[in-house]
Amino acid sequence: MTTRNSAAVQAAVLRANARRGVWQRLLAALGVRTGRVRRADAVAARWEHGAAGEAETARMVAPLVAQGWAIRHDLRMPGSRANLDHLLVSVQCHGKGPRLGAGGPVVASASRRTTTGRSACHGALTTRCRVGQLGLNQGDIPTRIAVKLVSPSGTLPFPGVLVTDTPMPAQPKFRDDVTVELVKASASDADVLFAARVSTLGERSFPARAMVDLEHTAVEHPQTARDRGLINYLMRDRHGSPWEHTSMTFFISAPIFVFREFMRHRAGWSYNEESGRYRELEPVFYWPGEDRKLVQQGKSGRYEFVDGPAGLHDFTRLHMEVAYREAYAAYEAMLAAGVAREVARSVLPVGLYSSMYATCNARSLMHFLGLRTTHPDAKVPSFPQREIEMVGELMEAHWAGLMPLTHAAFNTNGRVAP
């Protein structure tokens, strides 16, 4: 078990990277273990625990080779950072020895966790075969998950090893972005203008709507100048109701913790979110991008974020990935055992991605942007969490294209919702 994908190699790399550099080597020679080294050693110890399990599992399944099984260890999955710790291909699947029963299962035996649902045939094994799911079984293997493989024709004559052709769970994915799609909109500066002018024109305000000129040229049309002036007046003096005659629906994909902040905004908003009661949730998780500042400095209410020491992003991502994988493995195990989705989802973290439709009017959107984005024109400073600010920036870009006069007046007047 010494390939570049193995847990032992990963542990060695973590320890070596933590001690890289002249100062680190000097401190190590003096017997000083810095915080960086202690953290790396703690993570490496977990990998070494998994490595011991891999070695023991490899020893246990080795006798299956004499029965016609093909076994491979530490196989890199195409297009992924993940690997299969142990791959066992039944005699039927690669054409040796007697048939074990219908289905000809292929078994991916992971000593730490199940991995992927892709075709797992590798190298000389050219037949496309189905990947089996690991059952959870207590045993003597020193790993988090002891392997138990089940065959359609019954138990194989090997202690603790059975085979199944049930598809394995999806491989977790990790993202550092959010997406916002404008699904539909009934929102323009003209909607605001004709709603406002009913105050002075009465029934004549509706025909006057056709006079609105939204073309932007080098020489501004007189009607456009009047429209711009009216919208600026409404914004400055906070006559907000004309903007409530607009509507925009967005489809948003973001981590759950973003939506929990989002739903503090209730007036003028409607939400419908993906439900873990009615569908199995996909293993897509958030981790911070390279530009995300991770360290908070200062007192509560008067703090700022800074980059932090080198390697902190890798450290954060590693620990988040470990926690995400463990949580999703528990979720999948409960579903496989028959636990209801609405109960099993309780173990999933708020870093899981969800999706929702959010519908608002321009007035409620401006209130949202005033609180959830930072801008040099803002009269009132705001301190949003970066992830919800990313959503706000994308929503604002869509809105600015729909209502350019309103967007300009919003910025001119300090980004305070009317």
Model description:
- The protein is of the alpha+beta class and 418 residues long.
- Helix content is 37%, strand content 16%.
- It has helices spanning 7-18, 22-29, 35-61, 91-94, 189-201, 205-208, 222-236, 256-262, 312-336, 341-344, 362-372, 386-402, 404-412, and strands at residues 70-76, 83-89, 106-109, 131-132, 173-175, 179-186, 247-255, 269-273, 284-286, 295-299, 302-306, 353-360.
- The strands form four sheets. A four-stranded mixed β-sheet has the order 1-2-3-4.
- A hairpin with a 6-residue loop joins β1 (70-76) and β2.
- α1 (7-18) packs antiparallel against α3.
What are the defining features of this structure?
elongated; four-stranded mixed beta sheet; four-stranded antiparallel beta sheet; 418 residues; single chain; alpha+beta; 13 helices
Total strands = 12
Radius of gyration: 29 Å
Instruction: Give the helix/strand class.
Output: alpha+beta
The H/E string reads HHHEEHEEEEHHHEHEEEEHHEHHH
The biggest beta sheet reads: 4 strands, mixed
Task: Specify the helix fraction band.
Answer: 25-40%
What is the 3D form? Answer: elongated
* Mean pLDDT reading: 74
Q: How far apart, in Å, are the first and last alpha carbons? A: 66 Å
Provide the β-strand percentage band: 15-25%
List segments where confidence is low: pLDDT < 50 over at least 5 consecutive residues.
91-168
Enumerate how many helices there are, as a single number: 13
Strand order of the largest sheet: 1-2-3-4
Give the topology, please.
Layout: H1 7-18, H2 22-29, H3 35-61, E1 70-76, E2 83-89, H4 91-94, E3 106-109, E4 131-132, E5 173-175, E6 179-186, H5 189-201, H6 205-208, H7 222-236, E7 247-255, H8 256-262, E8 269-273, E9 284-286, E10 295-299, E11 302-306, H9 312-336, H10 341-344, E12 353-360, H11 362-372, H12 386-402, H13 404-412
Parallel strand pairs: 3-4, 5-9
Antiparallel strand pairs: 1-2, 2-3, 6-7, 7-12, 8-12, 10-11
Helix pairs in contact: 1-3, 5-7, 7-13, 11-12, 12-13
